[in-house]
Amino acid sequence: MTDTTGLVTASPAVVLDGVAAPLISFAQHLALLHKLLFGTDMVITSGKDSIHVASSLHGQGLALDIRTKDKTDAACVLLLSVLAYGGPENGIAVFDERALGDQAHIHVEYHGKV
Question: How many CB atoms lie within 10 A of CB 97?
Answer without folding.
Answer: 14
